[in-house]
Write a structure and sequence with these properties.
Keywords: Arabinose catabolism, ATP-binding, Carbohydrate metabolism, Kinase, Nucleotide-binding, Transferase. The chain is built from 17 helices and 21 strands. The chain is of the alpha/beta class. Strands 15-16-14-13-19-20-21 form a seven-stranded mixed beta sheet. Strands 3-2-1-5-12-11 form a six-stranded mixed beta sheet, sandwiched between helices. It has a two-stranded antiparallel sheet with strand order 4-7. The model has no long low-confidence stretch (mean pLDDT about 95).
Length: about 500
């Protein structure tokens, strides 16, 4: 019995799944790892934890699936989550997690570089990306930067552990390292201008398109993971970006939003557009000949978790009751606005120095009202991203939601109400893992192309319609959210420690 193995390194842990050749989920596994926050806005993980947790999750999934022969393997990870390694692949320091915002100054420096490749990212690199993080290392930890033989994305590290080859995902290279697949490849002159002229030598040795085979699973990894079969390792990429493959192939106008700790938005277009409020368009990042566009909320489900467990103090087991009580309240009438910028804003404001807020509190405010306002604030942030797509000329015809939002009906319904349009929920499945099965199927030769494999493994969805009576109320709430964002930007910058005039 043949099958495909999918591995996803998320923010909180590793997840693995085994899929049959017909797309049936045969087995799954999961294992957590810690995140450390040494300073406000910083977030770090240990690459050794990724491999340990990933191996545990894979063994669980294989055991549940009955130990089938594995034809193909594909990996997805958060990005840019950046590992800094010596010549033997050992970590020299903790990895910088995707949400780490310490490279704000470096991100701003990229905006002044004026390099033509930056037109694919709105004229600058985001604070989360590999290049600003490498700049930060070179400026603040020069000895570590100099000693680093490899500065790579988490997905590239995992592929190396699986195959022994430093083969980078073209998706990550294009979207996070300014790689130009239609031009000169790595922009050495840009790296030089940014003070990291030797960065390309520290990146993976080769760049492999998404879905193309990298090579066979190495003997050491095969033994540790307990894998049998040909097990061709296929080039993967960014977890949320790959999700577009798991909604039926990514036709123009389809937008996938993976709703979890953060919210990631992705779509593909046939012809490039260049609005300054979104990230991209990235040439050939997912499928050759098309352009990938992305947006994101840095904090989404994490805001709801912090509100329920951290601020209100409910144990995780009691959060369901809090959600139910908050859902019984009418929208907006509580008089509260929550700004979701707990770790800054990625799209459309591109401001890592924004901060979260709860406005309108009185001594009569209740925990249920605060939680409902937090859900609404996250949904307002989602609309702000979707509006930036449509305002920039990017078609948004169908919206597919997946991830942790399926476990919070209030968050799901509020998102549809705030957007004022139906949304399609992919429930009971992990789109990133399913997308990895698509890659594994295509790269191992089971299907002729990514599009064919994607159509074959399309998931089932349920449609959530907006409640007419709530749409108008949220229209006013969204206007207040935008006004509150503008009114608090100055104090957010001062509280974040940003220098005036920077």
């Amino acid at each position: 019995m043949a099958a495909f193995l999918a591995l996803d390194l998320g923010t909180e842990g590793a997840r693995a799944a085994v899929y049959g050749v017909d797309g049936t989920l045969m087995g799954s596994g999961a294992d957590p790892y810690p995140t450390r926050f040494p300073r406000p806005g910083w977030a770090e993980q240990d690459p050794d934890d990724w491999w340990r947790a990933g191996a545990n999750a894979v063994r669980q999934a294989l055991a549940e699936a009955g130990g089938p022969e594995i034809e193909g393997v594909a990996v997805a990870t958060t990005a840019s989550t950046v590992a800094v390694l010596d010549r033997d692949g050992r970590p020299l320091r903790p990895a910088l997690l995707w949400m780490d915002g310490r490279a704000g100054e470096e991100s701003e420096l990229t905006a002044g570089a004026g390099h033509p490749v930056l037109r694919y990212s709105g004229g600058r690199d985001a604070v989360e990306w590999l290049v600003p993080k490498a700049m930060w290392l070179a400026r603040h930890e020069p000895a570590t930067y100099s000693a680093a033989a490899r500065i790579v994305e988490a997905v590239d590290y995992m592929v190396w552990r699986l195959t022994g080859r430093w083969a980078g995902s073209r998706m990550n290279a294009v979207c996070k390292s300014n790689y130009d697949p239609r031009g000169t490849g790595h922009p050495h002159d840009l790296y030089e201008a940014l003070g990291i002229g030797d960065l390309a030598a520290k990146l993976p040795d080769e760049i492999v398109p998404v879905g193309d085979p990298v090579g066979p699973l190495g003997a050491e990894a095969r033994a540790e993971l307990g894998i049998t079969g040909q097990a061709t390792v296929v080039s993967g990429g960014i977890d949320a970006h790959l999700s577009l493959l798991a909604v039926g192939g990514g036709h123009e106008g389809q937008v996938s939003i993976v709703c979890g700790t953060s919210n990631a938005f992705v779509t593909e277009v046939a012809e490039p557009v260049f609005p300054a409020t979104v990230w991209g368009p990235y040439p050939d990042a997912l499928r050759t000949g098309r352009w990938l566009v992305e947006g994101g909320q840095v904090s989404a489900g994490s805001v709801l978790a912090w509100t329920g467990e951290g601020l209100i103090g409910r144990p995780r087991a009691e959060i369901g009751g809090l959600i139910k009580a908050a859902a019984e309240l009418p929208p907006v009438e509580h008089g509260l606005i929550v700004l979701d910028y707990f770790m800054g804003n990625r799209t459309p404001l591109r401001d890592p120095h924004l901060r979260g807020a709860v406005l309108g509190l009185t001594l009569a405010s209740t925990p249920e009202q605060v939680y409902r306002a937090a859900v609404e604030g996250v949904a307002y942030g989602t609309r702000q991203v979707v509006d930036s797509f449509t305002d920039g000329g990017i078609a948004v015809d169908e919206i597919f939601l997946s991830g942790g939002i399926q476990h919070n009906e209030l968050w799901l319904q509020t998102t549809a109400d705030v957007l004022g349009r139906p949304v399609h929920l992919v429930s009971g499945d992990n789109l990133t893992l399913r997308a990895c099965s698509v890659l594994a199927a295509a790269g191992s030769g089971r299907h002729g192309s990514l599009a064919e494999a994607a159509a074959h493994y399309a998931p089932k969805v349920r449609t959530v319609e907006p409640v007419d009576g709530n749409v108008a109320a949220y229209r006013h709430g969204y206007a207040d959210y935008r006004a509150a964002t503008a009114a608090t930007t100055g104090i957010s910058h001062r509280l974040s420690g940003r220098r005036p005039g920077a």
